[in-house]
Amino acid sequence: MSARWFGLAAVALLALAWGVLPAFSITLLANIGLYTMVALGLVLLTGVGGMTSFGQAAFVGIGAYATAWVCTMPWVAAGLGLAFDSAWLPWLGLALGLLCTTALAWLLGSVTVRLSGHYLPLGTIAWGLSLYFLFGNLGFLGGHTGITGLPALQFATWQLSTARELGVLIWALVLLAIVALHNLLDSRPGRALRALKSGRIMAESMGVDTARNRLQVFVLAALLAALSGWLYAHLQRFVNPTPFNLNIGIEYLFMAVVGGVGHLWGAVLGAALITLMKHYLQDLLPALLGASGNFEVIVFGLLMLLVLQRFPQGVWPLLVQLASHWVKAPVPTVAQATPGLPQRLLPAPGSVVLQAQGISKHFGGLVANNEVGLDLKAGEIHALIGPNGAGKSTFFNIVSGVDSPSAGRVTLVGHDMSGQPARAFAQRGLGRTFQHVRLLGTRSVLENVALGAHLCGQRGWLAAMLRLDRAQEAALLAQARAQIARCGLSEHSSKPASSLALGQQRLVEIARALAGQPSVLLLDEPAAGLRHLEKQALAALLADLAAGGVAILLVEHDMEFVMNLAQRVTVLEFGQVIARGTPAQVQANPRVREAYLGGGELAATEIEAVALEGQAA
After folding, report:
1. What pairing do the DSSP bridges indicate for beta strands 568-573 and 381-385?
2. Cα distance between residue 246 and residue 253, in whole Å
3. Is residue 109 helix, strand or coil?
4. Could you tell me which residues come within 8 angstroms of residue 24 by beta carbon, excluding any fewer than 6 positions away?
5. CA-to-CA distance for 452 and 197, rounded, in angstroms?
6. Which of 1, 558, 570, 610 has its CA 20 to 30 A from that of 172?
7. 0.85 cut: is pTM over it?
8. Which value, to the nearest 10 degrees, does the dihedral of the CA atoms of residues 392, 393, 397, 398 take?
């Protein structure tokens, strides 16, 4: 049975049991649905986006208090020209709650998501506590007493006045949220989101605006929490600050982590496990111990430690592994006759596409680059060589926008790139690989390479959630498959990138860079880890790209590979250019022999051997 049919069967079973389960069980299921909605936002925020938040309960409170205020203030209804008991008031409360949540989450997120390390969760604790105490100290929100007398939700003549009736809406919205978020993650913006957790520098180099994506996912998680708060308020018909304190915010995070913080269905499982665990501990422990108290809190904490220690990735991945014998993984389909993406126009052959003038970079007293100059022409393979610590990777980071120079200027296809981020370089047609491989290890080779084509698509989050981006998605994946095949990795397309050997992972990076249709390609040690035949295939690929008009700048320590491939070579030592010219000119330079190859007769013999091999080739 496929995973889709398994999910449909579970939904059908819940629907069939809904009418016969006792009222208490229905209330418990309705609460699990409410918690699941908040946990789904945390799966997206924490598991996918890599941002830990303890303050989601405060956004639940905003959704709850907004509808409570609208529905219980007579002058609000009068001002809107509605009767005090109008069925429209709760829906206006929903609109107000979502509007307030969006504004506040955007404001808080603009500050919070800029933080990193332990400062980020501490920041969420700060505003979570502030909002909790704000709810309890505002008189028009009822203070710590709260607001009572909220009406039931109503659809036309159908009134959702009980948990059995409102629970249907709750779980319908949960399932819609799961489908929408699944569609989002299975798309161009979803791949960008997955790169936020461990590959932000890499994602920026692929053209992803990581700051904007972090803020958007923060707001989306807050909106899911506010929707849960709105439903909670009309389920309880009463709102006070207690359910929105920091302890509840920690429980929401527990639900996402215990279920499986990177898995949407893990949110459902985590919410169910923790809700049921808390409920049964409250009933079971007093009976076992013969005394009442807060024993359930102690035991609950110990159980959480056990679960987190035994299942650090959550319980859902374990269940998936156990069910793998019965539930078949979906087989990716390849769209037929997929329309191609518009192709980037390459600069005229021989024109200067990348120019670095007087580039200097200081790290305190350390000078990594000292007035380095270099120009790269369309259709040319230009090698940048030098001993370890010469400043090659620092220079690469500067001319690709990952780092800013202390002095000097970088020009890309005629545009001054001073102060521009890495994504602006990508938009101008620059693609790159990294000295230390930067891939999304748990994702497939196809997904990693498709991330490189991020700028080739335009459809955003809403289109992805509604699955209106399928034509564009098929074209992006087709382009990714073409580059995977070009790099000789077709048989590994569906494998996790981390399962490949280091040399193959470097080829995945090259395929990812090519998926963005670059006119300038920067390769940092592309031949490292490759076997002899793989190096030959790579050299043929790079020569073919250069013949097609792509400008290639590469850093490489394999002198045979460099001297047989490059048309021009620039040599760095201690951050300064000590030689530049054709491979033959560089090989004959005494300073290069001394600095890079060790000098003396042995170095001269090695250089001559490389030159002879190049002539024979």
Report:
1. parallel
2. 11
3. helix
4. none
5. 17
6. 1
7. yes
8. -20
